[in-house]
Amino acid sequence: MPPGGWYQPIPDSQPGWYGKPLASWGTRFAAWLIDVLILAVPVIVFTIGIVAVATTSNTGAWVSGGLAFFAYLVALLLYAPLLMMREGEHNGQTFGKQALDIRVVRDNGDSMGFGWACLRELVVKGLLVGFASSIIPFLPWLLDNLWPLWDSENRAVHDMIVSTHVVQA
Hints:
Elements: H1 25-56, H2 61-84, H3 95-99, E1 102-106, H4 114-135, H5 139-146, H6 157-162, E2 164-168
Antiparallel strand pairs: 1-2
Helix pairs in contact: 1-2, 2-4, 4-5
């Protein structure tokens, strides 16, 4: 017993992450930025094309523009889930994460499937955080994205909700 008679045993198993090394907040942010830039290029090209068509002809330009925008919106929503569900060494990676050699892993060790990627990216990050941000503008989104800075396991709120970690690949 230590002096003073107080003794507290060390627990046999301490909670925490014991998998691959965790990705830093800066690496996560840089991967997100790469993904935003990848998705921004088609938007810019699309916008220039619609403006060019709309200024030369009014017949059907807005209909075709609306259909093209709808197709882009579907692609935008499916970008991360479709990439993250890939099998093998790129499972859990978007192009941004792949470029920086990080990946999303499920805490139970299973691979990221389409359903889990949709849950993480669309339902939790998109709808849940997006809905909360519509009530309290910007703050929930900011907290979710900055949370890894002070979390001991570098997890964002959306990672905690869906039981994932972002690790070095």
